[in-house]
Design a protein that fits this description.
Helix content: 25-40%
Shape: globular
Order of helices and strands: HEEEHEHEHEEEHHEEHEEEEHHHEEEE
CATH topology of one domain: Alpha-D-Glucose-1,6-Bisphosphate, Chain A, domain 3
CATH architecture of one domain: 3-Layer(aba) Sandwich
Number of helices: 10
Oligomer: single chain
Mean pLDDT: 86
Strand content: 15-25%
Distance between the termini: 41 Å
CATH class of one domain: Alpha Beta
Low-confidence stretches: 244-251, 311-338
Structural class: alpha+beta
């Protein structure tokens, strides 16, 4: 079961309280992800565990790089910098995290999804090593887990909210346009769209594996988080896809999310995005387009075409694919006005 789904932690949370346990640990099927329940039965944010492990890693290697994806809490880069490390912000995805870790020789990396990566474990992710870090931290203090992670979890997060929309890219463009004229927020397109205010930030991005738009919001207060979240959801749900027909379901390419997460362009090693309209995979770096046949991606350069080549059986040219770099450090900005 996927421990990222809160429903799959309910039994563990109840057991921790019932048995008066110090901690509860949940792993996915291959144990590359770890989720934690504190002694009160509350789920611990993966971002808080990322920050805790980062502090322990920096204690043994001061000044090291620590990787975090852009959906992790902003507490993570703050904690890393405060402890003398170098935080590096990346897009979401296993292959991107691992490549960035190798490029920077980062000592550790963490994702909001509960993946934790260790340089001394071949830059691979291990839920078991993450759990051992937590247990070692617990052994070194008399504080319970809830207090141990409290300093690393100062903000209020919405969690990832997924909505099936007709055209995810169009919705992202509309949200960007809504903020474009404002000088009190910062926009960046490292992965989807991130909008940052003085005491909040949001990210919307299209799923690489499904026709979904993913929304994440974090703020310094519950009220601010809820306000930003609800405004974005009202805009997103105006494009919500309702009750797709069986014909639609049959013609939509379906790819195993795990498979897509590890696939890279064989020509340039860039990450890939699904084009649901044309049943293709598009390289975000070089623009090569690979066909998907019977839900199986054909990852052969000889079978690929350039983005400026006609679509098979048509004279239509696919739109170019661009990727933008991180816009830099966050700047103080204010919450959106009514």
């Amino acid at each position: 079961a996927n421990p990222l789904d809160p429903a799959n932690l309910v039994d563990l949370q109840a057991a921790v309280v019932r048995e008066q346990a110090d901690v509860g640990l949940a792993f996915d099927g291959d144990a590359d992800r770890c989720f934690v329940v504190d002694e009160l039965g509350n789920a611990v944010s993966p971002s808080a565990l990322t920050a805790l492990i980062a502090v322990r890693s920096l204690a043994s290697e001061p000044g090291a790089h620590v990787i975090h994806n852009l959906i992790t809490s902003k507490a993570v880069p703050e904690v890393v910098a405060r402890h003398g490390g170098v935080p590096v912000r990346t897009q979401v995805g296993h292959s991107l995290i691992k490549a960035t870790m190798a490029d920077t020789n980062a000592v550790f990396g963490g994702e909001h999804s509960g993946h934790y990566y260790f340089r001394d474990f071949w830059f691979a992710d291990s839920g078991m090593l993450a759990a051992l870090h937590l247990l070692a931290a617990m052994a070194a203090t008399d504080r319970p887990v809830s207090r141990l992670v409290a300093d690393y979890d100062p903000y209020v997060a919405s969690g990832e909210i997924n909505t099936a929309v007709v055209a995810p890219a169009t919705v992202v463009e509309e949200i960007a346009a809504a903020f474009a004229a404002r000088d009190d927020v910062r926009l960046d397109t490292l992965d989807g769209l991130t909008v940052t205010g003085s005491d909040w930030w949001l990210n919307v991005r299209a799923s690489n594996t499904e026709p979904l738009l993913r929304l994440n919001v974090e703020a310094e207060s519950e009220d601010t988080m809820a306000s930003v979240r609800d405004r974005m959801l009202s805009l997103i749900k105006a494009h919500e896809q309702h009750n797709p027909t069986n014909a639609d379901e049959e013609t939509t390419v379906k790819l195993d999310p795990v498979l897509l997460d590890i696939l890279v362009c064989p020509d340039c090693k860039g990450s890939l995005t699904v084009d649901y309209d044309n049943d293709e995979l598009i390289c975000n770096q070089c623009g090569l387009i690979y066909p998907v046949r019977d839900d199986i991606p054909v990852m052969l350069v000889d079978e690929a075409r350039r983005s400026d080549s006609p679509l098979p059986g048509t004279s239509e040219v696919a739109p170019p694919v661009t990727a933008e770099a991180d816009a830099g450090p966050e700047q103080p900005m204010s919450a959106p006005a009514d």
